[in-house]
Write a structure and sequence with these properties.
Blueprint: H1 3-18, H2 21-27, H3 32-47, H4 51-59, H5 62-88, H6 91-97, H7 101-113, H8 119-126, H9 129-137, H10 144-167, H11 173-191, H12 207-231, H13 237-244, H14 247-259, H15 267-291, H16 296-301
Helix pairs in contact: 1-12, 2-6, 2-12, 3-5, 3-11, 3-12, 4-11, 5-6, 5-10, 5-11, 6-10, 6-14, 7-8, 7-10, 7-13, 9-15, 11-12
Amino acid sequence: MTPHAKAFWQIHACVVLWGFTAILGKLISLPALALVWWRMALVVAVLLAVPRVWRGLRALPRRLLGIYAGIGVLVSLHWLTFYGAIKLANASVAVTCIALGPVFLALVEPWIARRRFDARELLLGIAVVPGVALVVGGVPAGMRLGIAVGTLSALLVAVFGSLNKRFVERADPLTVTCIELGAGTVFLTLLAPFLPHSGALFPIPGPRDALLLGLLATGCTLLPFALSLVALRHLSAFAAQLAVNLEPVYAIGLAIVLLGEQRELTGWFYTGVAIILLAVFVPVWWARRNRGAAPVPEGIAGEH
């Protein structure tokens, strides 16, 4: 198996796991800020028990440490807005908004990763816009704020994904994960008093929430986050984001089965989701048709 093909399967495994994050976010009763803070803090606590992480921290130059910490702040804001969108709308709406990521990536990745701008990537990203427009029309008016917050989340994931692509090869993936999530935890701790809240900023979760947070932190955060950093060594952030566009398939299917969210949404919503998926699968089909058995990410990204 070629490195590109292996990276494709790695990122797809991440997408399957990420498909559960929105479901868990909806099931956990904590507000978005506390949910994200506990999620990040638990992962950091696990990583700090790994000797390999400490060796990586000692060997890391201060400049890279600062860069990864800055990326971690963006990660925390992305997760905060993502779970905010879930609480304001629902899981299906939040994961669908993330499909706007390729539009933002096509614009910001060439600048951040210092590579040539490719108009084809922008066209592929824009292809999801009609689907997103139908998604907006297919949700109740009370969920529109959730769509706006979800769109901001998509912009943030494009920026930190591009930055990770540029700097991912310069340190151990577990060390990078620890720094980024650790910095994100500290940032949210400092930011929390300035955000609207009622009661404790970071309430102690009950037994049910604690179990769900444990699943979210390990199986849906630590494993796919580190694995995605490994995969990005052989994929552009744009190619990875197009693969991540499959997340709504898993998340929406799970939301229907586990949460019954189909009762909150109209047929226009699912028509929009179908258009978004076509915007993902048509380039994949076209790439395979023209390149034989070439790995999917090569065809999607158009640069490997």
